[in-house]
Specification:
globular
Length: 115
Amino acid sequence: DDAIESGDEDALELGGWVYAFTFPTISKPTGEYPIKIGKTVGDVAARVNDQVKGSASFEQPVVLGKWQVKRVGPAELAIHNALKARGKWRENAPGREWFDTTPAEIEALVRFICG
């Protein structure tokens, strides 16, 4: 994961997981809400827990979905860019890669982009 984050070209070509998570207090049963979309070549739950460990959140994150993909770096970037083009990026979120979206929209993008 460190190699991917640093932009290592070889690591970006690895297969891995695109995942989505949020926190219980900001999720909704219907409609869009803030969702973090990330990537990992390892265990999704461990990666999510590692990301929130240093934050000031008093809640446990909820993994909304994980999708195994080839070329995880470009796949995640394409999903981010599609959501940005739709005006769903939360530019002022506390952290990166947060979007106002739904798990269904993310899954549809993964299927379209990585299908």
